Amino acid sequence: MGFWNTLRIGASALASQRLRLDIISNNIANAETTKTSSGGPYQRQDVVFRPEGERTFLPYLMRMIQHPLGAGSRLVTSQPAGVKVAKIITDQEPGPVVYDPTHPDADENGNVQYPNVNLVVEMTNMISATRSYEANLSMIAAAKRMAQKALEIGR
Questions:
Q1: Which of 50, 116, 56, 42 shows the shortest CA–CA distance to 84?
Q2: pLDDT single digits (tens) 26-85
């Protein structure tokens, strides 16, 4: 894998983790939002990642049928190409219901449906995303140092 591929993979991971952090921040900001434009309480969102350049299982299966013991029967069918956000999903689990008849969004029984955002979960996800972001920054910095050393050796 070359220098530019390493940078491309690192950049895709940084962009994906940045979007994940944005989604987590949005969840935290709406932890008390009991009424959205759609009418109900805010529903937390999460990010689903998938590898870029991912290939299906079919080419691997076809090679195994054609060459059961031959070369090219590896499970890895493509070079790593980074990560991307496949989709942003909405958690459909209902949030807690709290009795508060003075709340403007209370129903006829005085109950208020709150968002399904758990701040402990969101903060844990934020720490995980931040650490992943930092790890990818370190990988890019290491690739840069290796390229600089290679240029120094070539002089």
A1: 50
A2: 999 999 999 999 889 999 999 999 988 755 555 555 555 665 555 554 554 456 678 889
Supply the pTM of this predicted model: 0.78
Q: What are the two backbone dihedrals, phi and then psi, of residue 97, each rounded to the nearest 5 degrees?
A: -110, 125
Supply the pLDDT for residue 73: 46
Residue 104 lies in a domain: no
Query: DSSP string of 37-51?
Result: TTSS----EEEEEEE
**The pair of three-digit structure tokens given for residue 70, joined into one six-digit string:** 């031959």
Distance CA 40, CA 42 (A): 7
130 membership: H or E segment, kind and range: helix 119-154
The pLDDT of residue 100: 94
Q: Is residue 108 part of a domain?
A: no
Q: Is residue 102 in a domain? A: no
In 61-144, DSSP assigns E strands to 83-90, 97-99, 111-113
